[in-house]
Amino acid sequence: MRPRTLIPLACLALAACAGPGAPPHGAVGAAQKDFAAPMSRVRIAAVSALGSRSMRIVALGSAADGETIRAQGPGGSAELRLERKGHDATRMIATVNGGAKPADRAAADALLADTARFLESAAR
């Protein structure tokens, strides 16, 4: 194969890796979930999920389209990005860093699942 042929193939392979299962916004180890709830309710559930993991909030930030929550715990740190997607729709992007692991996708997925459970239990 000629070198000119390898470049398009390499680009194609990289594009396939950036499909639906790829981390959002280019963050390695990040996970995201869309919630059918306003941002205020998702924020409360996310803070409860962080608390259940003994993580304390160390920084809050806001932007035109959302908010950022940074937390620190015994096992590492987390950054949650809440994006308003409509009146009753919020996307949460979680990145969890656990000590030696620079980014932990499984922990980010678990944090999203915990947030969903707290959100569901608050609705009852």
What is the global morphology? globular
The CATH C-level class name: Alpha Beta
Alpha-beta content class: alpha+beta
SSE arrangement, N to C: HEHEEEEH
CATH H-level superfamily title: Bacterial toxin RNase RnlA/LsoA, N-terminal domain
CATH architecture: 2-Layer Sandwich
The proportion of residues forming helix, as a percent range, comes to 25-40%
- The parts where pLDDT drops under 50 for at least 5 residues are 5-26
**What's the end-to-end separation, in Å?**
62 Å
Structural features:
5 strands; 5-stranded antiparallel β-sheet; 124 residues; TATA-Binding Protein; alpha+beta; single chain; 39% helix
Secondary-structure map with pairings?
Layout: H1 3-17, E1 30-35, H2 39-52, E2 56-63, E3 66-73, E4 76-86, E5 89-97, H3 105-123
Antiparallel strand pairs: 1-5, 2-3, 3-4, 4-5
Helix pairs in contact: 2-3
Question: What does this molecule look like?
Answer:
There is one protein chain. By secondary structure, the protein is of the alpha+beta class. The chain has a single domain, classed as 2-Layer Sandwich (TATA-Binding Protein), CATH 3.30.310.240. The radius of gyration is 17 Å and the shape is globular.
